[in-house]
């Protein structure tokens, strides 16, 4: 019985022990199972986190690009504003500099012919070829009328030839306190030391005084004096274009002030001459040299003063090609003066009126004078004068100021008038 009971007890004990032993194994299995599930969940969760992180990183990267683009635009805009501000600052700085700098106005061609012609020689088409020019007197050498390209010219046949304008008062001082001289000079090709003209400021035949003289060369001018050292040679530099062509020479003398121009450039500007110019002598240093379109004029009064006193400005220094309405380059001196006057006086309006001498037919002269008036008007408009401040007309030979029986009278009649309206 006891044995049975003991056996039963032992069996139960062993069973219990087995259960006790088996229980942790099952629990561990459950634990492992739970751990596996947790691990899988953790792995899945971590994978999700990593995936989300990768996605977030990618999104962040894309957002960074967008932000960079936005930042870039903002930077560009900022740079643009900064650049604009810098430009504005530089502009303001430049304006300040300009305000500090002097306003420089300089003209190398300010020649304006005298008001009244006292000597004029084309020479005339009536002059006979091979004869001595009738409007001149000879001091030395040999000078004759010739024809170049269909125009009569004065030809210097031998070296060191001197001519003087033939005037009734040539033995006196016939040059006023204010006068101008103009002429066209031809130099043959080939530059030599003798290839030049001299324009003496005296009549070397009748009343020779000191030997102040303007020297005209193919490429420029110089002023020579026996009594004082004046500025030396002024030239444009030698070039082939200056060979074998006509040069327009202009001289302006105003109560001691002496200026000389080569084509459209002022090359000599002497504030005070110590002599009184009394006449003109032209001397060629070589043969086969020519001159034409010689004019000596006296005066003038400032343009604005003429408008105030007479209501118009009479200009005979505006020149055109023969029987044409095309302006010659030397005409720009007076036109520039009119332009500046109209700029300074905005209330001043002009009717530009052309006039001719009596050569040619009445109808042709009328048409020519109208065309020339319009040419000058158009030129002023092109320079910047408002159209409503200008008009043009022409009167041909119908309103002469002087006789048409002398070259000087004809020259005074060939004019342009700027009439105030």
CATH class of the largest domain: Mainly Beta
Number of helices: 5
β-sheet strand percentage: 25-35%
Rg over alpha carbons: 50 Å
Describe the structure in your own words.
- 35% of the residues lie in helices and 26% in strands.
- It has 421 residues and is of the alpha+beta class.
- The strands form three sheets. Strands 1, 3, 4, 6, 11, 12, 13 and 15 form an eight-stranded antiparallel beta sheet that branches. The chain has a seven-stranded antiparallel beta sheet with strand order 2-5-14-7-8-9-10, with no helix packed on it.
- Strand 11 (246-254) and strand 12 (257-262) form a beta hairpin.
- The longest helix has 99 residues, at 2-100.
- It is globular.
Entry keywords:
421 residues, alpha+beta, 60s Ribosomal Protein L30, Chain: A, eight-stranded antiparallel beta sheet
Task: Give a short overview.
The chain has 421 residues and is of the alpha+beta class. It has helices at residues 2-100, 303-310, 332-344, 362-383, 407-413; strands spanning 116-121, 136-140, 143-148, 151-156, 161-165, 178-186, 197-200, 213-217, 220-224, 234-235, 246-254, 257-262, 265-270, 281-284, 289-298, 312-315, 350-355, 390-394, 415-420.
